[in-house]
From TrEMBL, chain A:
Limits of the FAD dependent oxidoreductase domain: 4-299
Annotated catalysed reactions: a D-alpha-amino acid + O2 + H2O = a 2-oxocarboxylate + H2O2 + NH4(+)
Pfam families on file: DAO (PF01266)
Keyword Zinc applies: no
GO MF terms held by the record: D-amino-acid oxidase activity; FAD binding
Name the UniProt record assigns to this protein: D-amino-acid oxidase
Family: Belongs to the DAMOX/DASOX family.
Biological process (GO), any one: D-amino acid metabolic process
Organism: Donghicola eburneus
UniProtKB/TrEMBL annotation, chain B:
Reactions catalysed according to its record: [ThiS sulfur-carrier protein]-C-terminal-Gly-aminoethanethioate + 2-iminoacetate + 1-deoxy-D-xylulose 5-phosphate = [ThiS sulfur-carrier protein]-C-terminal Gly-Gly + 2-[(2R,5Z)-2-carboxy-4-methylthiazol-5(2H)-ylidene]ethyl phosphate + 2 H2O + H(+)
Homology family: Belongs to the ThiG family.
tRNA processing found in the keyword field: no
Pfam families referenced in this protein's UniProt entry, alphabetically: ThiG (PF05690)
Main location: cytoplasm
Gene: thiG
EC number(s) from the headed UniProt entry: 2.8.1.10
Protein name: Thiazole synthase
Gene3D superfamilies referenced in this protein's UniProt entry, alphabetically: Aldolase class I
InterPro entries: Aldolase_TIM, Thiazole_synthase_ThiG, ThiG
Protein keywords: Cytoplasm, Schiff base, Thiamine biosynthesis, Transferase
Amino acid sequence: MYSVLGAGVTGLCVATALSERGLPVELVDDGGIPASHWAGGMLAPMCEGESAPPEVVRMGKHAADWWSARFDGVAWRGTLVVAPPRDQAELLRFSRATRRHHTVDPAEYEADLQGRFTRALYFPEEAHMDPRAAMSCLRARLAERGVVTVERPKGQIIDCRGLAARDQLPDLRAVRGEMLLVHAPDVNLSRTVRLLHPRFPCYVVPRGDGLYMIGATMIESDEAGPISARALVEMLSAAYALHPAFAEAQVIETGTGLRPSFPDNIPCIREIGSRIHVNGMYRHGFLTSPYLAETLADRLSNEMKHAS
Amino acid sequence: MFYGVELGSRLMLGTAQYPSPAVLAKAMEVSGTEVITVSLRREGSGGSAFRDLIAGSGCRILPNTAGCHTAKEAITTAHMAREVFGTNWIKLEVIGHADTLQPDPFALVEAARVLCADGFEVFPYTTDDLIVGEKLLDAGCQVLMPWGAPIGSGQGLRNSAALKTMRAHFAGVPLVVDAGIGAPSQAAQAMEMGFDAVLLNTAVAKAVDPVAMARAFGMAVSAGRLAHDAGLMPARDMAAASTPIFGMAELA
């Protein structure tokens, strides 16, 4: 029996991959809110390559396929990246730091951007989804497969607790992220739009029905308290720069999550004694968990075959 | 000498906006820098994990008050920095305008006076204005850090004539060009002009390959300083043949 600790995106992906290979697995959930609850749900490996190392881009390459095979809410709409006229240098920098994009007129993709931005980078292979719906879907699938959720582990521990595993992983640190969810029925965007800005970059992910997730700050801090006024002001100004109708939006929710991160910001599988850790997802939980979960499941099922 | 400290490398590096602490550590190593500047205002007491990582580099820490808009905020942040890093060094930044990030010279002088009296060794981020520079020295600062161009703009030494005047006016005062440097050639230019060091962040942190760019800046700063010490030739209006014509054989 494998006991997966933590029911955030990593724990759910690992439990899913193990269960799909027929390995006995249980989920151990302490009921806390995982960092992934606050995620954007972008499946955008190429855009992330702007600052993430090639390993992360490689891990995330098939993430959208993995989610699509299990969850019917993946929107394959690509990503648009724009910059205000005076920050065009940022767009040039982004285009040099990333691959598999082309320059387009954003109005041909999102009519609402007509007249506001003349150029955009378009990443056609990327996707987005509602991360909370995706996690609920994995939970429901696990329950259907007979995977139980318990309070105390009975089997070999696979630790996917995110930042809570700092007690076992001394080099794990928190990177604070703040986000907001707004209802802006006057804005009509169908795909993730990233607005580049030298100080307050932001992204807007459509959730459907006029809802948009706006994210996210990146602060080297483990302070878990509510969103700061500065973060709110900066992200809302950036959203307003993207489309003025965001000024009329209703703020539905704000949130703060602590991203579990190793010094190189690359997620990994680590074995310490009899405990297997899958951690350090940083800002790439939905992008890299499927790859790490499949890698671990392959290894464990091979070990089981050799043992029998 | 910066408050009695002699530095081998004259490159000072900021630590913000890197892809990861691991990339930052590598960039610091290959650049040869001995002084790194770290912000505290936004990270607060919750940022200790990151601070521990960079404190492990062995570089001298120059905490900064980035993000402060009033003298009071900057003074509070400086006190927190002294407590957290155990150093009297503080890079004093008081921003006057949120969009241009231009320093507020009035609040800067006020904060510098309070901090110097309190035993801090202040590195004030200022403009190239001579009178502000004099007021800062009068307040007790023993280093001045004039801007090259607005923070993060990468425009280089936007007013090199003013910087040249400043260098001549404050002979003997350690001067560091801080902010606005986008390319190694601009850092070399500042060093050739006789500045004592350069401080930069974005040009390295946001390079497509920050580690390679850190190396490039380290080399440029060394080259510029070496050139200044070696005595640069003055520019001339006319060509001057490096080989004398007089006495050459006539092969007619």
